[in-house]
Amino acid sequence: MKRIYLDNNATTPQAPEVTEAMRPFFEEHFANPASTHREGQKVRHRLEAARARVAELIEASPEEIVFTSGGTESINLAILGAARKRPDGHIVTTAIEHAAGLEAVRRFEEEGGTATYVRSRSSGDIDPQAVIDAIRPDTVLVSVMHSNNETGVLQPIEPLARECNRRTILFHTDAAQSCGKISISVRETPVDLVSLAAHKFYGPKGVGALYIRKGIDLLPQMFGGGQQGSRRSGTEATALAVGMGRACELARSAPGSYLERIAPLRDRLERGLVAAYPGATVNGSNALRLPNTSSVRFPGIRGEEMVISLDLQGIAVSPGAACSSGAHRPSHVLIGMGLGADLARSSVRFSLGLYSLPEEIDRVLQVIPEITAGLRGMGNRMSTAAGKEGDRA
Q1: Which residues touch 26 (CB under 8 Å, ≥6 apart)?
Q2: CATH at residue 42
Q3: Tens digit of each residue's pLDDT (9 = 90 or more) over 284-294
């Protein structure tokens, strides 16, 4: 049985073109890009070409791009690099951010700063006025994700970026999940800091980037040889950076494919799932969402059990964010949208990718009725048994 991969928000397969672009830098072009000899300067040239490709994807300038080890470091560098310049300052963020953002803000609080966590509406999006109302005279940073990694809901970053720009407050957005799926332009939206992760759009794992608008000075979070303008010291991982650059080159045409081909597949999947299971509901369906993401709750069924049952049928999905899949607590995103713990635990995330096929969606919809019937029956039997045990007690 050929397996079906519908967990592309966790990570995407590395594109063959990316692998080929990286190969020479593991073998022939291995020199340190900081070296002044010919071999080192050849590598430096390719590294800077990769930086330009990342910049081009979001309409930035190459000197505004800093390579990092991934989305988590990019988010931490943005939040802590900005906020630690005023240790007693204040951050405004949301309660539905990725764990990397939430934990960075909590670290700032532990160090003596303060923060406000704006809750989302039941639709999964943030009321921009609520964010603006949370800004204080001592606010040093506003950080709101571009799209939610669990529900795919897009957040209203443009009015927030413009208001922060008007007030000369730094604005950061985590665009790791958006990049390559929808268009992002730092020319059109005056964000100051944008975090990216290559493996979310068919690039290699272990590399990311942070866009830092020209003129913004962050406190570095890594110290050493002063690479990348001392904003992020350490010898650059050239092979990974080249891979990210190639992935960005490929991603320039990807939003059209997502909107024209993947969004209709996602919509057909959602219609079939809702029709197959009474009470099934798409989380965030009333808000603008990424074209590939479906978070669906199946009342009476635990999401983890659904994931296991689908896995046995050769279908890979997720109960929520991959970074918290080992946790047994309900999703903080779904709880933040007002769902109770049981409903939050009943949710499953299906995230399509550029390699997803119509016949794969057909296969999912073929097996779902039997799976949900079995899981619901098992839940009913367990509830009955628990009731009898209570009667005997």
Answers
A1: 239
A2: 3.40.640.10
A3: 999 999 999 99
